[in-house]
Amino acid sequence: MEEIVLHAEPRDVTGKRVKYLRREGYVPAVVYGHRTKPINLRVQERALHQAMREAGGNRLISLQIGGLAEPKHVLAWEVQRDAISHAMLHIDFYEVVMTEEIRTEVPIILVGEALPVKKGEGLLFQGLDSIEIECLPADLPAHIEVNLANLTAIDQAILVRDLKFSEAVKVLTEPDELVAKVMPLAKEEVEVAPVAEAVIPEVEVVSKKKLEAEEEAKEEQK
Q1: Per CATH, which fold does 102-184 belong to?
Q2: What does R_g of the chain's alpha carbons equal in angstroms?
Q3: DSSP string, 16-47
Q4: Would the CA dihedral through 48, 54, 113, 186 be positive or negative?
Q5: pLDDT (tens digit per residue) in 23-55
Q6: pTM of the model
Q7: CA atoms of 56 and 133, how far apart (whole Å)
Q8: Per-residue pLDDT tens for 51-104?
Q9: Domain boundaries, the chain
Q10: Which fold has domain 4-95?
């Protein structure tokens, strides 16, 4: 795998004055580690974007710092962004020791398509988007691919235990954690309201003879 190289320069500007660095096209940064004293840096924004596209948070970056003979092997540990523009405001680099194991998260990338989903018979549910691992920096995978084509039936699932890593990588996420599963389509239940029986009001039919009899009774009472 090709090495990712990023150049940086030490900086004396700190606090509120770093906004002037950003206006000049630089991003303030710091590099540190459990064996490294923090060093304040400035990095060209364009070069940083390029390095981040290639490395993400899981590939080592060879950080070439002006004034130092040897590069530092670092991970992009934390990025602060503007809430509106999403521009990078600050970045932390963590220097790793190549002979010491590190613990980090590796992103899951789904590839392929589950057969029931392809047929429109099911829906895909993704339970995890990353896996926690521990390994030496040189063995750190950029990501883990999960092939959904292995899911051929409804309710079939892929668990963490089903994922394949090299022997140099120790998986820390629980093996029974769900990575992906094909769920059945929800049946649309349409409730049909019962049709109420029409209530026909009782109508008294008064015959002509009944009317005449009532009239005669009234005359007799007079």
Answers
A1: RNA Polymerase Alpha Subunit; Chain A, domain 2 (2.170.120)
A2: 37
A3: GGHHHHHHTTEEEEEEEETTEEEEEEEEEHHH
A4: negative
A5: 999 999 999 998 889 999 999 999 999 999 988
A6: 0.72
A7: 16
A8: 999 887 788 999 999 989 999 999 998 999 989 998 899 999 999 999 999 999
A9: 4-95, 102-184
A10: Ribosomal Protein L25; Chain P (2.40.240)
